[in-house]
Write a structure and sequence with these properties.
The chain has 7 helices and 2 strands. By secondary structure, it is mostly helical. It folds into 2 domains: 165 residues, no CATH class; 101 residues, no CATH class. A two-stranded antiparallel sheet has the order 1-2. α5 crosses α6. The longest helix is centred in the N-terminal third of the chain and has 47 residues. It is globular.
């Protein structure tokens, strides 16, 4: 079968232009709303945490990381609402009949929600968190706010001594966010209604089941284990990496490919 049946640049550009034409206002309002809410919440959080950011070692990195994690949850909501037409039966029929292959439709949403939106969202966070820091006032405490540095992305990959973390931790964080984002993205093709909520619930159930399974194995192989304790016997792979950390790293590095493949085949199944 010709590759043209899977991907054609003219069909792809037409689908992309059509989506932007229909949803450009919604996308713009989403970006503005995300920036405004992030500023308000970041200002409130940083204002309440400014003492710890000055007094405690590693407080800057820790508090900026908290802001970033909650921000990425909001970004995940946007990513997890891809394929909005699939939530309505009539719109789904029209969308699936729209000229274009399953791969092209998948790539349009991937480009908009991840390829374009995520870099824009990271830029928004950099601007907004710095504005929130600049808006802080000493108040009655008379703190010297110049001791709190402006946000830089290096704070997210630094330890409590403001030194860069091990490379495996940096890769794990980057691909961990990517994998979970694409997991939410894939969920929109799997569930018909309330896809984001159902996908999050499934992830919680899977996580809980995995923990219970590990607890069960701990009781089987280590009878001295009691209650909900977990016993893992790790072995050293490198000076800074053990077997559990290697598993976590490999899972984050490759799981996003699996979730993206699921999204493609589920979308193709709906067109059948």
């Amino acid at each position: 079968m010709s590759f043209n049946n899977y991907f054609n640049i003219k069909r792809f550009s037409h689908l992309l232009k059509q989506d932007l034409l229909i949803n450009k206002t919604k996308y713009l309002l989403t970006i503005i709303g995300l920036a405004f809410i992030t500023y308000l919440l970041s200002y409130w959080f940083l204002n309440s945490a400014k003492n710890s950011m000055i007094q405690y070692e590693g407080g800057v990195s820790r508090n900026y990381m908290v802001c970033f994690i909650f921000y990425m949850m909001a970004v995940g909501v946007v990513v997890g609402t891809a394929f909005p037409d699939l939530s309505n039966q009539i719109k789904t029929s029209n969308y699936l009949l729209c000229p274009g292959s399953s791969f092209e439709k998948l790539m349009v949403q991937f480009l908009l929600r991840i390829g374009l939106f995520v870099p824009i969202a990271l830029g928004i966070f950099w601007i907004v968190i710095r504005l929130a820091k600049a808006s802080l006032t000493p108040g009655e405490s008379g703190l010297d706010l110049s001791l709190i540095p402006y946000f830089e992305f290096r704070f997210l990959v630094s330890n409590y001594k403001n030194e860069l973390d091990d490379i495996w931790k940096i890769l794990f964080m980057i691909f961990g966010f990517l994998s979970y984002g694409i997991y939410l993205f894939a969920g929109t093709t799997y569930f018909k209604r309330y896809a984001l909520i159902k996908t999050v619930i499934v992830s919680v159930v899977l996580w809980g089941t995995s923990v219970l399974f590990v607890i069960l194995l701990s009781h089987i192989f280590y009878p001295e284990n009691h209650g909900f304790g977990i016993i893992l016997r790790d072995f050293v792979i490198t000076e800074h990496l053990d077997s559990s950390q290697m598993f976590a790293l490999l899972f984050s590095l490759f799981s996003w490919m699996f979730f993206l493949a699921i999204a493609y085949f589920k979308l193709k199944e709906r067109e059948a």
